Batch of 3 targets.
Target 1
Amino acid sequence: MASATNVRPQSATPGATFVERAILLVRGHRVILDQDLARLYGVRVKRLNEQVRRNIERFPADFMFQTEPGELGSLRSQIATLDQGRGEHRKYSPLAFTEQGVAMLSSVLRAPRAVQVNIEIMRAFVKLRRLLETNADLSRKLDALERKYDGQFGIVFEAI
């Protein structure tokens, strides 16, 4: 089996589930790796990265960064995308794109489906943000309940 850098992705757009699973947490940022973006856009990883390098001024550190070798090990275990065999491993660590970096990619890629893919990716980021906000609200409500009932149970324990 060939690596993601050597095979042109399928022409069908991967579904929302793929996009949601492609969002990883690296260095405290929610990102999508270059290999997943290349698959979504229907381009080779090499071509995506060439366009980024040609337009590097559009990708400051808070939009895109290159993962480090230590991070790569944990990412490999999360995504399990490396193929076995000679020449199948990437020469460089993957680029990680934040939500803003993904939005910027649509301005440098000329892939026909770039706009549609970006819409799906932005929707996935928004969905993730809403889920995190919902979890934060639930956490605050649970904390309030704990404080309320801890006080009431304290009175009961003192009486006993």
Note: The radius of gyration is 21 Å.
Target 2
Amino acid sequence: MAWLEAHQELRDHPKIKRAARSLNITRPQMIGHMLCLWWWCLDYAQDGDLSLYDPVDIADAALWDGDPETFVRALLECGPADRAGLLVSADGLRVNDWDEYGGKYITKRNQSRDRQRTYRKRNAS
């Protein structure tokens, strides 16, 4: 079962607030959309790279019913003036800071899988 850390600061994070205002939704709704997107990434974009997906795919992953382009733009533009949003577009579309959050889970999962494989090989006889 996959999981993500959801820090208490997420509720009041400036990027969440800005994105919610931009999309004219509540912060709890914005948090829900982001969690859905991040969970989807654990299965389909494990490195946080969304460049293979179009805005319709990304909005669908986040369970966003509105205009997909508007949703992705809000995630890109919700950062302070000189900082990244929840998504970044340098070198293709990516989840900002993915390695610090979802990427940690993927790394641990892969390490556990490799450890189990080694254990099974060693104890196969």
Note: Residues 91 and 100 are 18 Å apart (CA to CA).
Target 3
Amino acid sequence: MTDACEYGRALFALAEESGRTETILADLNTARSAFESAPEYASLLDTPALSKAERRALVDEAFSALEEYVKNTLRILCEKRLAHLFPSAVKA
């Protein structure tokens, strides 16, 4: 079982190391709001009916304006079909 806190902590560490904590936190909150307002989107990103490439493409299209660390975290979660953990990872 994967703990959403692990992803959140790792992303926060990257944000601090890069000196872009405020930008990354703002982008995380933007993406979290999108997931919370449309929970079916996480279900779509977690479905095995789509290939990893298709799920990554959906993330790239929907979140193209966000910071790269945020998009990479979303891509990783989608590849593992764990997009539903994203809001919890942000809160962590």
Note: The mean pLDDT is 90.
